[in-house]
Amino acid sequence: MPDGDDYLIFRPDQVDLTRSPLRHGVDEPTHVLGAFNPGFTRLPNGNLLLMVRVAEALRDPVHTECARAIRWTPAGYVLDRHPVHRIDMDDPRQFALKDRNPRLLGLTSLSWLLPVELDGEGRNIVAIHYDKAIQPSASYMDYGVEDARITKVDGQYWMTACGVSAERHCTAMYRSANGLDYELLGIVLDHQNKDMILFEGKVADKFMALTRPLGECYFAYPEDSPWLGGPSINIAQSPDGLHWKPLDTPGIRARKGTTSTQRIGGGSQPVLTPEGWMMIYHGVEKRGSVGIYRSFWALLDKDDPSQILRLEDEVPLIEANPALTAEIAHQMYLPTPVTFTTGIADAGDRYIVAGGEADLACRITHIPKERFR
């Protein structure tokens, strides 16, 4: 059982790859590059659920002068080959085709989702549900399904995930009545709208969600503005959870004078407190090729979430903790500290917060509710 209030709960070596969906087509040896960034919710039985992103990669990704990428097809998984003299391989997570504008990428792993059930305190693994794992199932996710976010609204579990393909980089929606068995409802947001997560409750009878559109072009604010241009957290609303309209008002933006200005994006599902909607998000400090990821928090108005009541963007709520990954440091591949909050659950006088650590493992942090006052 983990000690203390901050610990790793699930690691790459705990994944049984003999039960991986990639066994349907990929016969060569693979390993888990990361088991991280889990969707997080409380099940009807009181236990907690991690919907873990398993990034599975070939042990020998380069063969006969070709880099190989795993791709899903309706008939099973296949390997695509890219001559190494035509690509750049500076990032262990991906490679880029040379002399292409816009930039075209290939992944060194394919991600699928593994439900891991914890006890109600989030300290022990109760079951690993390989029979309920979620793998790519449509052409718009043939390079993987990534980064689940789960929210319970009106008794239903809504889960967003990123579909990765050459067709598009999109947000897909799943729904479940019991938190374990999910039905794919299709695409809800199109190209590169990352970190979508629904509010845990409706506002004026409408679903609300955080979004984070990405693009290749951003515009500068005036010099006297407190804001910086770049990726930001926006808010959208929907009558049914499937059809979304962005709010006209901007959401949370990178602010001058803080360290985390490279990009920001959603983390936990916003939960309603007496003070308003509390949410945890990530901010990235520019450092190297990846940056330093930290978690911060904000409070939004309960009736109009576009109104930011409080923004704690200077002192991090959660930072990467090298002591947690010391035992698996030999598996780390990122050069800078990364922690990435992905979900929250109420536990009375505290919140249980789940996330990814070093893009490698799943981390649990218990935070007293007093910290958010």
Automatic annotation (TrEMBL):
Keywords for the protein's UniProt record, in alphabetical order: Glycosidase, Glycosyltransferase, Hydrolase, Transferase
Coiled-coil blocks: none
GO molecular function: glycosyltransferase activity; hydrolase activity, acting on glycosyl bonds
SUPFAM superfamilies in the cross-refs: Arabinanase/levansucrase/invertase (SSF75005)
Database matches in InterPro entries: Glyco_hydro_beta-prop_sf (IPR023296), Mannoside_phosphorylase (IPR007184)
UniProt superkingdom: Bacteria
Pfam family, one: Glyco_hydro_130
Family from the record: Belongs to the glycosyl hydrolase 130 family.
Protein name, per record: Glycosidase
Species assigned in the record: Sphingomonas psychrotolerans
